[in-house]
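User: I'm writing a short report section on ligand binding and want a predicted complex to refer to. Could you take this sequence and 6-diazenyl-5-OXO-L-norleucine and write out the structure as tokens? A short remark afterwards would be nice.
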Amino acid sequence: MNRKKVRPLIGQGKVADYIPALANVNPNQFGIAVYGNDGTTYHAGQAHTDFSIQSISKVFSLTLAMKHYGETMWERVGREPSGNPFNSLVQLEYEAGIPRNPFINAGALVVSDMNQSRFASPHYAMREFIRRLADNPNLHSDKVVSTSEYEFRARNASMAYLMKAFGNFENDVEDVLHNYFDNCAMQMNCIDLAKAFSFLANKGYSRHNDEQVLTARETTQVNGLLATSGLYDEAGNFAFRVGLPGKSGVGGGIIAIVPNRFSVCVWSPELNKSGNSLAGMAALEALSESIGWSVFG
Ligand code: DON
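Assistant: Sure. The structure tokens for the complex follow:
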């Protein structure tokens, strides 16, 4: 990787501060991990430092819901890019409470509502699922972060209540919000995340715990959605610069999938205007360019 293209960006972005508990993170950090389908792990920088996974959790929630709902879930959430910021409300009103995709906040809230209907303790079901995928029994959610998110929940609560008004929300909104924030506040490091998402690079199979997490077909579907909607209103730019299915979080993490080969996680807390890690994007671009990883040929 060309460090000269990445290092100067540290100091140029802005750590997420709309969730006050996230504003305290040291911005001057960078980590990367790559997990190969043969089980080999490569890492550099602060790959062992835990951070808040935030919207990366939306991929775990979707995977869990797909396992339990199959095709029927797509009646309640779309599969199109939104072209809008992750927390935008505008499309929801004129599209009758059906969110564009499972990776914008409204879509993830509907998916969380589905998981809420299916599990007695939805966050614990999710935590166990993530622990198993990452092969790390110590993973946990940061209560300070989730409490801070709940306190400043107005936008997410508005989306959920609007969907409820349209009949696309089954459970108590406040209960679902608590579980959604607990999932977003999971603390993981780059190695945990690269390992946890290895099934998406391996036709749905998780090698380290010998589990077919999704079918091969479902895996290509999730990767397709990640490529078109994983980076919100920057999905096109990410396809252009990196050319991989990916998902970002406002904690500064980005996961990317090199189908049939590697799962990757980069982390650097400072974000660009779309809420995606500035140095993380540059690192993935440099890596993809130098190794020829883009899925677009
Ligand atoms: O609900 C929220 O706004 C946050 N818990 C997650 C947002 C997020 O990570 C968007 N990703 N870039």
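A remark for your report: Residues 26 and 269 are 8 Å apart (CA to CA). The chain has a mean pLDDT of 96.
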